[in-house]
């Protein structure tokens, strides 16, 4: 099962803190959470304006501890009826680090979670850079951006001149 995800975060060049995570499965299931564990005072002006200002009200049920997020993400990604998870993100290096850090260092990442995320921007380049849909107005909302990642993947998959033997499209 392919999962398209995005994270929003606070970073200072040395540390990175999860603000929110959105995941969209190719079968339509979705997951979204905002961490109660980040320190908003560490956010730079750009993150305050483009990310924190757009978060749901802190009383909303999507606000959760990282411990809760960790358990819910694991359950969402590893339900056996959906097969092995395949992770995709647009410029996803930081996203993968944040995902892995839900469990601590890389040695504590559950075996069922892939050790890498497939790079959607690179896939787009391989597909010949087909026109992509305009970024949503609510960009920098992790769930909105994850949905947009799925849209971009589908456009790229349809643009590639590859048949059923294409491992990526199986």
TrEMBL record:
Stored InterPro entries: 3_5_Exoribonuc_actinobac, RNaseH-like_sf, RNaseH_sf, Rv2179c-like
Keyword hit for ATP-binding: no
GO molecular function per UniProt: 3'-5' exonuclease activity; magnesium ion binding; nucleic acid binding; RNA exonuclease activity
Region of interest (RNA binding), ranges: 6-9
Residues in 3'-5' exoribonuclease Rv2179c-like domain copies: 2-151
Cofactor mode of binding and number, as noted: Binds 1 Mg(2+) ion per subunit.
Subunit structure and binding partners: Homodimer.
Protein name, per record: 3'-5' exoribonuclease
């Amino acid at each position: 099962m392919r999962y398209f995800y995005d994270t929003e975060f606070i970073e200072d060049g040395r540390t990175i803190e999860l603000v929110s995570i959105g995941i969209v499965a190719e079968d339509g299931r979705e997951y979204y959470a905002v961490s109660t564990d980040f320190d908003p005072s560490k956010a730079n002006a750009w993150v305050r304006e483009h990310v924190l200002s757009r978060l749901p009200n802190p009383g909303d049920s999507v606000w959760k501890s990282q411990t809760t997020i960790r358990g819910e993400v694991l359950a969402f990604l590893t339900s056996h009826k959906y097969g092995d998870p395949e992770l995709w993100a647009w410029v996803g290096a930081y996203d993968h680090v944040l995902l892995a850090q839900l469990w601590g260092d890389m040695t504590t990442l559950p075996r069922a979670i892939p050790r890498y995320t497939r790079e959607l921007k690179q896939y787009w380049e391989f597909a010949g850079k087909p026109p992509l849909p305009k970024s949503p107005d609510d960009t920098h909302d992790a769930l909105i951006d994850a949905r947009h990642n799925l849209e971009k993947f589908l456009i790229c998959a349809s643009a590639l001149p590859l048949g059923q033997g294409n491992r990526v499209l199986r």
